Amino acid sequence: MPGLVRGVARTAVVAGTASAVSGRVARRQQNKWAEQEAQQAPQQAPQQAPQQAPQQATPAPAGPAADPIQQLKDLGELHRDGVLTDEEFAAQKAKILNG
Fold it and tell me: Structural domain tally of the chain?
């Protein structure tokens, strides 16, 4: 039973980290595309009719930002309960703090 709990807890930590990383990647891509559109807009403006206003990119709504304090508390509980080893705890803590 403890092995099962450890496996489930690790999966939860990995999934949480993966969703936080994918959210950051999506935001970076959206910002990059918005910058590219902003750079292209002045170049295309003379070609457009004066009646047309340039369209502004609306950023996609970002997913709920994970609270790093809550993540650290959850991580600490998993470590305290023996679900995570010292090395696993240190690695995940570093990811949260550097993210």
Answer: 1
